[in-house]
């Protein structure tokens, strides 16, 4: 529909410079420039390298997104940007760029939450999210169960990891197995040739007295490292595919069991899975089987939309405009530990569009 909001979204919370353009719930462009290869030799994301790469990629990526979408910057109804959580310096590059474009174009600015964006991106694939929706968010930085009754204003955390994120566990296990970084995709691939029941790795926080919706992957990671070490010490060959498959089975078993339980306990019959680890083929398969059995509708965006991208930010920004949420003030800052309950950074109660008034106020103060 032509009158649906046309929004550009900018994502720079980690190592992907993402710029997406969305009209309503329709994806028009999803341009991503990744610095992942620059970090590979360090075994993890180096914040300074990520910030520098965002700075260099920002303007070309915005231009590419506008070209692909076939729209002019002046046609936009708003600019959305990830305000947090994420790496402080990396976030700052995106927030500064969004402010500059919003200022120059005289458009409303929406600083939004990275985690809520990971949920909202599903609208681009499966239409508007049912309310309520349960969300299992699993990425390199987060593993949480969230209940959303309105993706622009009400996202409640039910549980989270108490130590490592699921993606972090994939990355660390990949390192132990000598498979490189990032670990998730390569563990996923290796696991297809292995037997997931070959080794009984521990399922963290899974006894009756443990918190029902929290996760723990640190013990599992250590158990895998010890198992591999013992083989190497004994001079035996490590069955890499079986280790990868058994580790992956343990992670996906816990994630899907807790997510389905959260749905049942809350009487919610829609589950969405987002974040980089949602690209995992076994997680998708197991979640589908368990949701079918429990009568829950499963929504998982395609893998390219699960990892960090600008389209997810544009999707949430567009929903903000659609629902008349107030634009952010022009003194918007990046918040590296932004809580998920803060879905967006609201501006003045009168809300919409007076970016310049906010800017002048901010400059005066
Ligand atoms: O959402 P994301 O792109 O960035 C963060 O916000 O963290 O997630 C990246 C994480 C990495 O840890 C990566 O190893 C993991 O997602 N990942 C996967 C797969 N693809 C990416 N984990 C398991 N299986 C995959 N196929
Ligand atoms: Zn993410």
UniProtKB/TrEMBL annotation:
Residues that hold Fe cation according to the record: 114, 118, 308
InterPro entries reported in the protein's UniProt record: ATPase_NBD, Gcp-like_dom, KAE1/TsaD, Peptidase_M22_CS, TsaD
Source organism, top-level taxon: Bacteria
Cofactor annotation comment: Binds 1 Fe(2+) ion per subunit.
Catalytically driven reaction(s): L-threonylcarbamoyladenylate + adenosine(37) in tRNA = N(6)-L-threonylcarbamoyladenosine(37) in tRNA + AMP + H(+)
Residues given in the record as substrate binding sites: 137-141, 171, 184, 188, 280
Segments forming domain Gcp-like: 27-314
Record localization: Cytoplasm
Pfam families listed in its UniProt record: TsaD
Signal sequence coordinates: none
Keywords of this entry: Acyltransferase, Cytoplasm, Iron, Metal-binding, Transferase, tRNA processing
Cofactor dependency: Fe(2+)
Main location, first listed in the record: cytoplasm
GO MF annotation list: tRNA N(6)-L-threonylcarbamoyladenine synthase activity
SUPFAM superfamilies: Actin-like ATPase domain (SSF53067)
Entry EC no(s): 2.3.1.234
NCBIfam families noted in UniProt: gcp_kae1 (TIGR00329), T6A_TsaD_YgjD (TIGR03723)
Family to which this protein belongs: Belongs to the KAE1 / TsaD family.
Described function: Required for the formation of a threonylcarbamoyl group on adenosine at position 37 (t(6)A37) in tRNAs that read codons beginning with adenine. Is involved in the transfer of the threonylcarbamoyl moiety of threonylcarbamoyl-AMP (TC-AMP) to the N6 group of A37, together with TsaE and TsaB. TsaD likely plays a direct catalytic role in this reaction.
HAMAP family: TsaD
Protein name stated in the entry: tRNA N6-adenosine threonylcarbamoyltransferase
